[in-house]
Design a protein that fits this description.
Blueprint lengths: L3 E3 L6 E3 L4 E6 L2 E5 L8 E4 L3 H10 L1 H6 L5 H14 L3
Antiparallel strand pairs: 1-2, 3-4, 3-5
Helix pairs in contact: 1-3
């Protein structure tokens, strides 16, 4: 059975293998490329547009039930620009 997840950006479903996991650990957001780190995770399509939608909508704060530090979001955005499709 293939695991299905919902992208926090566009809100469309996709297979776990097709999405990227974002975790919130020790007060910081990070990409979990191996999808093995412990803790709560959010899922994104590998597109900058989905990342931008998630930030604009406040999806990370809602998903992790925590306030998001703008500095953490900026750092994650830099990483996203390097690794996600435009």
């Amino acid at each position: 059975m293939n695991a299905v997840r919902t992208c926090v950006g566009c809100r469309q479903t996709g297979l776990r293998a097709e999405l990227i996991r974002v975790i919130f650990s020790q007060g910081k957001l990070a990409f979990d490329q191996e999808k093995i780190l412990p803790g709560r995770g959010s899922w994104l399509h590998p597109k900058l547009s989905c990342f931008a939608l998630a930030v604009d909508r406040g999806s990370f704060a809602r998903s992790f039930r925590a306030r998001m530090n703008l500095e953490n979001l900026a750092t994650l955005k830099e990483q996203a620009e390097k690794m996600l499709d435009k």
